[in-house]
Every structure is written in structure tokens, then in C-alpha cells.
Amino acid sequence: MPGFKVSLIVKQPPEVVARALGDPENTVRWTSGLQRFEVVKGNSGETGALARLHYVERGREYVMEDYLEYCAPEKKYVSRVSGNGMNVRVETILTPVEDGTEIAVFWSGTSDSLPAGIILPFMGGVIKRRALADLKTFKNLVEEHGARFPRA
User: Distance between CA atoms of 96 and 98, rounded to whole angstroms?
Assistant: First the structure.
């Protein structure tokens, strides 16, 4: 089961970073391949919320489900993301620091299909690099625009 942590400092207070993270329209602006974030149950950013994540990568469309299983607003968010042969746990922790907010993302995943099970252990480095690039994009958008990113 590959797992990793990526983190960086965002020069905004935790409440701004949390609002930016919780806005589904923002998510498509900083997440690679994500075309649409569809909340199907509950409210985005609240424990129990369920969303469908619509991706397109290399011309292939697929959907993942994101269940927010735990939320301590402006502090910690834990999601279970499943689909496309994978089950992923994503834990996001916001920590106030002198210059803003440290955002740390812990990712771990398993597979529930043979093809994904064969590929997933070799994809850890690629997934980590993509997660860090996405987090840098998020940082840049939040530092420039605050909690509400420009709409496409």
C-alpha cells in the first residue's frame, strides 16, 4: 500500500485556506484531471458529505466517490475516495504558523481490482509528484485570490 505526505506553507490564515479547500468550484481549478466536483449528499466540507469527482486523463473519463468521514473545521479533514479500482484515504491537516498556514496532506491507497493492485505499488512516486504539484497550484491560487478562485 503506497502512502506519502506532502506539505507546504500557504501565506493565508487557516480560515481562508479552509474556505478555499471547502469550495467545490475551487477544487476543479487546482486538481489535475478533475473536470467536475458534484456534491450528491450533504454539504461540501461537512462530515458525511458525499461527492462524485469526474476526471478526464489521457482522454479517458472516470468517476471517483469522495466521502468526507471526518471534519474538524479549519484543522483536519479525512476523506475516503474510491473508484477506478482504488480505495484512498486522504487526511488534510491545517496548522497555523507564523507566516500563514501549513497544509499537510497524508495519502494512502489500496486496490480492489487485480489491474489496479498490480499498478498501484509502482505509481506511488507519480501520485506523490502530482499531489505536490496540485498543492502548489492550490497555494498559488489561495495566496493570490483568497478563498474564492476565479471561475473558468
Answer: 7
